[in-house]
């Protein structure tokens, strides 16, 4: 569902939708060619490039591919989920089947329950019950995961473990669709690993842990504190005014509040939509606006960005406590009092 700031914005986006750029989606087609061409081009020339450089380039391209998968599942560049899936099922980023990611991510777009660990599959909060049952080591790891360094280093391991746990539960309850998605993914992954080893000289462990894991780590930079736990749903999602490199790598998903309001807007139009209404979006998000990922690095490299336990998931919260939580998660930065960041 699209949530417009007002009727004027709705009409403006309808005009943009009628443009040849939007109707043809040629930037997304060019992106598909660039991602696949770059990935396989690097793989085929891995020996000539040298393995460290090749693995680094493949990790970067695999992260870009995950951004492309995100675009595909949101209905671009075609209206056909099947056609889009054909461009997203290749296991270039190793760890997750496209179909499983698609289903999970679309559930994440239920903004009324955003960040609630019981409802939001992409929440980095945990329930009070999970915290209470965790041992000292797990509590430490969960706390470290809420720092930027910890999210990059440990976040992929948590995601992989969660995916494996999820498929085990799905198979145990007889979920044929999930089992079929994983079966297809594993067959394609085996074929890709065989090709990489015998044609490109890239061993399976180098691909999985020298490409797949670093790609997830790069993606964790984007997802670090994309959402905060506050009472007002529109104020839960960040606007990150990142530099051009990160915008291209993440396909403008740094303008995350705009994406959640307007999930049908293609990646190449998100920046335009945001900058035409920059102040309005700042107001809508409760000034949850960040001046690039370096802001998170300076503040939260080794400091927790948020509590591990969700402040009020699944509970009716007294108004006074909601105000305290909102204020805690909306302190102004030292260098820009107009931008409030979650503390």
TrEMBL record:
Q: Which residues cross the membrane?
A: 26-44, 50-68, 80-101, 148-171, 178-196, 202-221
Q: Which BP terms does GO give this entry?
A: lipid metabolic process
A Pfam family recorded for this sequence: FA_desaturase
- Keywords in alphabetical order, please: Membrane, Transmembrane, Transmembrane helix
Residue ranges of every copy of the Fatty acid desaturase domain listed in the record: 53-285
InterPro entries reported for this sequence = FA_desaturase_dom
**The protein, known as:** Fatty acid desaturase
């Amino acid at each position: 569902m699209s949530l417009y700031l007002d009727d004027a914005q709705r009409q403006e986006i309808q005009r943009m939708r009628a443009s040849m750029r939007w109707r043809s989606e040629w930037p997304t087609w060019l992106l598909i060619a660039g991602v696949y061409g770059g990935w396989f081009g690097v793989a085929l020339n891995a020996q000539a490039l040298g393995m460290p450089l090749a693995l680094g380039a493949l990790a970067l391209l695999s992260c870009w591919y995950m951004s492309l998968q995100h675009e595909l599942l949101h209905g671009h560049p075609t209206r056909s989920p099947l056609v889009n899936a054909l461009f997203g099922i290749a296991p270039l980023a190793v760890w997750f089947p496209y179909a499983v990611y698609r289903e999970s991510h679309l559930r994440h777009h239920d903004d009324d329950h955003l960040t609630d660990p019981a409802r939001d599959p992409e929440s980095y909060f945990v329930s009070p019950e999970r915290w209470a049952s965790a041992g000292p080591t797990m509590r430490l790891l969960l706390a470290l995961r809420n720092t930027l360094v910890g999210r990059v280093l440990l976040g992929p391991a948590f995601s992989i473990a969660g995916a494996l746990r999820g498929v085990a539960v799905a198979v145990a309850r007889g979920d044929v669709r999930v089992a079929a998605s994983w079966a297809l993914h594993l067959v394609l992954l085996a074929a890709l690993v065989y090709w990489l080893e015998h044609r490109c000289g890239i061993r399976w462990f180098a691909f999985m842990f020298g490409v797949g894991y670093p790609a997830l780590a790069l993606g964790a930079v984007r997802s670090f504190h994309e959402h905060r736990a506050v009472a007002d749903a529109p104020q839960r999602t960040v606007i990150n005014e990142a530099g051009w490199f990160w915008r291209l790598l993440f396909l403008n998903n740094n303008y995350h509040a705009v994406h959640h309001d307007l999930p049908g807007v293609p990646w190449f139009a998100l920046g335009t939509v945001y900058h035409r209404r920059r102040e309005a979006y700042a107001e809508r998000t409760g000034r949850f606006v960040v001046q690039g990922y370096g802001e998170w690095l300076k503040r939260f490299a080794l400091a927790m960005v948020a509590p591990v336990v969700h402040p009020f998931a699944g509970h009716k919260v007294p108004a006074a406590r909601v105000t305290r939580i909102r204020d805690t998660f909306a302190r102004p930065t030292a260098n820009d009092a107009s931008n409030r960041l979650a503390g």
